[in-house]
Amino acid sequence: GPAHLSRLAGKCFSFVESTYKYEFCPFHNVTQHEQTFRWNAYSGILGIWHEWEIDNNTFVGMWMREGDSCETKSRQTKVHLVCGKSNKLAFVSEPSTCVYSLTFETPLVCHPHSLLVYPTLTEALQRRWDEAEQLLYDELITDQGYKKTLKDIFEEAGLLKVTEEKEVEKQNKKISLEFETVEKCSKEYKQLSKEIKKLKDLLSQHGIAYKGNSGE
């Protein structure tokens, strides 16, 4: 995520509400400790640093997931980063059972560009985003296709966690590229050649120059 937020790593911030003390350690975890003398006072993890929530080119929150179990699921917490004069945990709520919401104030997000996603990406990923933007503008992909491309970019950048199913799918794709026979390879090559021709024709129709060679 944003490089300037890394100075929060290794620090923890607490907030006490009625009999509970909450502790937020950015890029680490969120914990809750019951402040009573009961023999079975609760003390546990409400979530471990997992991924960002991204909306409209902005880091809108940090997801801390896979906390202590709660009935059939794990506890999880969304941390909202808001502009404030000092670093402090300002508010805690539980909008739905075992899903917590934390508001963290920090001067590190007061600049209007401090939570933009695009500048944190590598040049190659920025180029992919630019291309997707152009395709959407030219109506060559749907809004859904555009969102999927962005999700792939964010996953590749390590901002979003890749689901296990997707990991398996990726591995399977790699394996499926190894052909058992030359015949299968030729068949696949012909199929891809047809597809490339279609795409080249489409680019020509829209007046987009294509540079490449048959080896690619």
TrEMBL record:
Pfam families: PRKCSH. The keyword Hydrolase does not apply. Residues 10-112 form the MRH domain. InterPro entries: DMAP1-bd, Gtb1-like, Man6P_isomerase_rcpt-bd_dom_sf, MRH_dom, OS9-like_dom. Its main location: Golgi. One of its GO terms (cellular component) is extracellular region. It is found in: Golgi apparatus; Secreted. SUPFAM superfamilies: Mannose 6-phosphate receptor domain (SSF50911). Residues 117-216 form the DMAP1-binding domain. Keywords: Disulfide bond, Glycoprotein, Golgi apparatus, Secreted, Signal. Coiled coil: none annotated. Non-catalytic subunit of the N-acetylglucosamine-1-phosphotransferase complex, an enzyme that catalyzes the formation of mannose 6-phosphate (M6P) markers on high mannose type oligosaccharides in the Golgi apparatus. Binds and presents the high mannose glycans of the acceptor to the catalytic alpha and beta subunits (GNPTAB). Enhances the rate of N-acetylglucosamine-1-phosphate transfer to the oligosaccharides of acid hydrolase acceptors. Homodimer; disulfide-linked. Hexamer of two alpha (GNPTAB), two beta (GNPTAB) and two gamma (GNPTG) subunits; disulfide-linked. The alpha and/or the beta subunits of the enzyme constitute the catalytic subunits. This is N-acetylglucosamine-1-phosphotransferase subunit gamma. It comes from Eudyptes sclateri.
